[in-house]
Specification:
This protein is about 25% helix and about 45% strand. It is an alpha+beta fold.
Length: about 500
Amino acid sequence: MSKRRSRKQSKSRGVNPLVVVLVAGGVLLIVMVIGLLVIKSTIGAWLKGDEFRQFLVQKAGVVMGSEIELADMTWQGSEAYAERFRARGYNGASFSEIGLDGIRAQSGGISDGAFRVPEVTVNRFQLLFSDRRIKRPPGEDAVVTQEFEGPEIPEWLSRFVPNRIEVDEVAISSATVSVENDDGTTSFELSGVKAKIRPDFQAKMWEIGGQGGKLQVADQPVVKLKDLAMRWQETDIFIDRCALGIYEAGHIDGTGEISFSGEGNFDLDLQISSIDVDELIEGEWRDRLSGIVEGPVRISGPPEALIYEGTLNVIDAVVEEIPVLTVISKYTRNEQFKYLVLSKAQTEFKSNGELIELRDLVLQADGLVRVEGDVDIQGEAIAGALQVGVTAGTLRWIPGAERQVFVESRDGFLWAPLNLTGTISEPKEDLSGRLIAAAGEAILKELPEGLLNEAQKFLNPRDGASDSDDLQERGKSVIDILSPFLKGL
């Protein structure tokens, strides 16, 4: 009996290993849960405290090479709000200033050593490129390379503390990008753009898409932004796509690159369309020319000295009341010369400062007239060397025209040179005077000898004068004297 009691007591004193494991595991689980809750609370308190704000300031300063100012953040759940963010570039930074107002960020937690932000919304974004930079404070180089310490947690959990920030998307209600000259004037400004940005802080590349707003280049008309897709990396902007509106109904599609390093440089390829000629010219030429302009245009050079060049075509082009054509109309008795519908109106052009060069200019009205040549416009002054061709049948009513003025025959036209001078508002040409003089001289040769000798005095140069205005006046005088004889014309 004593042996049974002994065995029973030994059994009751034994410990079940499974129970031990379960109890120990339960205790460990409770400890881990409590520990994780403490760690989460610690990290959460760190994220919402001033230490995390300082962490953001330091990281942004390192990445952007700038002095950073970030307002205090307020948290509502997982969403943080800051009134403003400012970055002022040190010497060597790719920009001068960046400003953000009304910043709201959604926290996506921490993973792979990064603090993730799925979306940031910004009320206003401003980016300035200029030569103005600030000096880096003494010893700052050493400070910015140090890792900022997060909350004190066990080493095995340190991998959960972020050492970088990853932002998926930044939505901006109104963005402005400006370029300032040395004198403080603005040479380029893109403003009022609703934009979305996908930043890559590691590659320092920002993908930017935008709609709305306007673009202003110095001394150029305001351009409306319809659509934009570009990439910004340090001092370079790569434009993958842009659609712009100009004047009332004009449209521009473009691609290219803009560099803001040094003096800056533009290299843009544009395709313009639907621009009314009346919106490009001034003065009385607005009443003489009409049509719609289209064609490729390239813009290159620094912002202060942009060069525009390309090919312009004018569709549905009409010219009217051009002096030389009015003279031809009068003497050919063909009213079509007063109002010409052009089948072709095209020129190569280059604009460099105040100088506008028109090369390979062609204006043609089928079956009537063709104008070819080059024209230079310097400020208000205009100078051109042109050739005017008319069909042979139109000259039969102009005495002397074929023998003395339109003496070259090619491409189905009879050609005469025309020199263009004067100003844009008051252009002058020498062809009208030569036509009138030739007509007068041809008529005189048909008169009796006595009357011919008297009339020819009007055609002889006076005191060596031979300019086109004097020649035209003498020709008109002859025709006025002989008007009784010209009724049959």
